C-alpha cells in the first residue's frame, strides 16, 4: 500500500527536506534511509528509476538520490525526462569510482556523484550541501506559491491547477509566478515586460499573446477567464 503524501502546496514552511532514495538493494536502502532520517530528512524509498517518476509527482521531493548501477538505461531515461522540466537536485551513486562513470552521470544531469562503497554519513553531508546550493533553508524550505487552485513550485518549475499538472514554457511559468505572487494587483503590460522579460522598451502585444496562451492552459473557460483577468485601461491581474 502506498503512502498518502500531501502535496507541496500543503506543506508548512518548516517541514524537513524530503529526499527520494532510488535504491533497489533492500539492505542498503534500509541502512541509508535510517541514517538520513536520523539526520532530519524525510525519506521515501523506491526500488527502481521506473517507479521514481510517480513518486516525484506525489511526493514533491527536495532532492533525489539515484543509484545508477542496477539499471543505467532506466536512469538515463529518468534524468532526461526530469531535466526537460525540472531542476530537482540529484545525487547519483554507483559502486564504480572511475572518471568515465562520473562524467556519464554528470552529463545526464546529475548535480553530484558518489562512488562506492556508499558512506551514509558522507551522503548526508552532500545532501545538505546540495540543498543549500539549491536555495533550500530550514526556516523557509523551497519556495512554493499556493494561490487559489494553483500550486507553483519554483525549484521544480511546475504548476498544478485543480490537482492536475500543467505544462508551461519557461516564460509562461515566469509570467504566472510573477502575477501569482501579487494577487489582486493590476500590472501594466510595460511593467510585465520589464519584470518578466527584462525589457525596458518593447511591444506590449508580447504580453497579450503569452497571457492568452496561459489562459488556454489554466482557465476552465479561457474566453471568460477567472484567474488572470483583464483590467481595462491598465493590464492584467491575478485573482486566486
Write up this protein.
39% of the residues lie in helices and 21% in strands. It has eight helices and twelve strands. It has helices spanning 26-38, 49-59, 72-83, 99-108, 120-133, 170-180, 189-197, 205-218, and strands spanning 18-22, 42-46, 63-67, 90-94, 112-115, 144-147, 150-153, 158-161, 164-166, 186-188, 228-231, 235-238. The strands form three sheets. Strands 2-1-3-4-5 form a five-stranded parallel β-sheet, with helices on both faces. It starts with 17 loop residues before the first strand and ends with a strand.
Brief summary of the model shown:
With 240 residues, the protein is of the alpha/beta class.
Question: What is the number of helical segments per DSSP (H or I, 4+ residues)?
Answer: 8
CATH architecture of the largest domain: 3-Layer(aba) Sandwich
Strand order of the largest sheet: 2-1-3-4-5
| CATH secondary-structure class of the largest domain | Alpha Beta
**Fraction of residues in β-strands:** 15-25%
Name the average pLDDT: 83
Let me know the CATH homologous superfamily of the largest domain.
Answer: Response regulator
- Taking pLDDT < 50 over at least 5 consecutive residues as the criterion, the unreliable ranges are 1-14
Q: What structural class do you assign from the helix and strand content?
A: alpha/beta
Amino acid at each position: 500500500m502506498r503512502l498518502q503524501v500531501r502535496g507541496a502546496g500543503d506543506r508548512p514552511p518548516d517541514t524537513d527536506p524530503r529526499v527520494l532514495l532510488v535504491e533497489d538493494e533492500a539492505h542498503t536502502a534500509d541502512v541509508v534511509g535510517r541514517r538520513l532520517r536520523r539526520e532530519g530528512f524525510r525519506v521515501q524509498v523506491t526500488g527502481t528509476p521506473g517507479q521514481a517518476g510517480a513518486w516525484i509527482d506525489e511526493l514533491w521531493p527536495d532532492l533525489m538520490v539515484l543509484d545508477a548501477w542496477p539499471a543505467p538505461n532506466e536512469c538515463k531515461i529518468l534524468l532526461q525526462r526530469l531535466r526537460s522540466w525540472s531542476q530537482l537536485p540529484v545525487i547519483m551513486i554507483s559502486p564504480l569510482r572511475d572518471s568515465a562513470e562520473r562524467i556519464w552521470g554528470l552529463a545526464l544531469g546529475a548535480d553530484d556523484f558518489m562512488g562506492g562503497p556508499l558512506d551514509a554519513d558522507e551522503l548526508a553531508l552532500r545532501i545538505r550541501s546540495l540543498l543549500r546550493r539549491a536555495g533550500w533553508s530550514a526556516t523557509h524550505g523551497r519556495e512554493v506559491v499556493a494561490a487559489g487552485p494553483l500550486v507553483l513550485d519554483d525549484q521544480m518549475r511546475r504548476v498544478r491547477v485543480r490537482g492536475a499538472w500543467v505544462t508551461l514554457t519557461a516564460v509562461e511559468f515566469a509570467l504566472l509566478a510573477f502575477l501569482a505572487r501579487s494577487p489582486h494587483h493590476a500590472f501594466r503590460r510595460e511593467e510585465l515586460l520589464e519584470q518578466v522579460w527584462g525589457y525596458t522598451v518593447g511591444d506590449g502585444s508580447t504580453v497579450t499573446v503569452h497571457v492568452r496562451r496561459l489562459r488556454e492552459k489554466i482557465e476552465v473557460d479561457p474566453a471568460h477567464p477567472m484567474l488572470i483577468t483583464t483590467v481595462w485601461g491598465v493590464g492584467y491581474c491575478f485573482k486566486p
